Amino acid sequence: MNKRQHSSTASELTDNSSLDSSIFESLKGQKSKKALEIIECNIFDQTKEIESLHCQITSKDKELQDLKTKLNDSEKRTAEI
């Protein structure tokens, strides 16, 4: 192998190394994107669960207020007797 062939082979190795690096960065970017998608899905699911729990709490609060009103009315009737 002459000097010129050796030089081009070294250049090819450098090019391949940079190609490997760009492939690695691309894969890393894809993994990051996938991780973000998973996080977004988890946040969406948790948001739906929070909304559901909020509705349940609101419903239970309404029931509690109704029971308090009934108790208050009952106490008023008892006091009148």
Strand content: under 5%
Main β-sheet description: none
Class computed from helices, strands and strand pairing: mainly alpha
Instruction: Please count the beta strands (DSSP E, at least 2 residues each).
Output: 0
What is the ordering of alpha helices and beta strands? H
Low-confidence stretches: 1-8
Shape: rod-shaped
User: What is the first-to-last residue Cα distance?
Assistant: 116 Å
Helix content: over 70%
Specify the number of helices: 1
Q: Which whole number gives the mean pLDDT?
A: 82
Rg calc: 35 Å
Architecture overview:
The protein is about 95% helix and about 0% strand. The protein has one helix at about 5-80. The chain has one helix and no strands. The N and C termini lie far apart (about 115 Å).
Spell out the key features of this protein:
disordered N terminus, 96% helix, 1 helix, 81 residues, mainly alpha, single chain
